[in-house]
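Appendix B. One record, verbatim.
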Amino acid sequence: MRKRFVLRSQARLYILALALTMLAFMLVMLWVSSKQAHALPEYSVRTGESCAACHVNPGGGGPRTLRGLLWSARGRPDQVPELPGILIAPRVEDGVELYEIACGGCHGNKAEGLSAMSLINTGISEVSIRSFTLRGIPSLGMPGFEGLFTEDQLEKLVGYVTGLSNGEISPPVDTFDLPPALFRCPQEADDLVCGNLYSQPGGN
């Protein structure tokens, strides 16, 4: 009789422990789910910065910039730290490449427009393009790039975007015409020109 009572007591304790464990688990899950999430685009809204402040891709996502890494390391405060004098494209001199680094993520690498407007044949003046590039358009989520380019880089970038805007420059093409492939070496070619691969039996 006593043994049966002990077994019943142990069963009750086991059920009670199980119930308490499940209750604790449910409380933890409720607490976690009730915490305010600060995922994109909430971070941008909270800090007042565009996604380009913290990400290499101006549209957001992907690897973080130095500012983004420092912001994250500081516990993601409401203000993204400034890093004056840090160039985003050191030693890059080509306008097309500068455009791809700074603008392509939002405007598209062919300026066709992605999350931001198309830049092809818009007629936006060079003065406006320079101003927008430096100061951004905060109401549209466009970041400013003042201090992030050298003066020469800025001139190349503004010149390229202005050319897209006024139709003087065509956007990059998707395909390129290539000469037809030569699958056999010409009769007059030697092994140095065609290589041993083309001098196998069946080749000329």
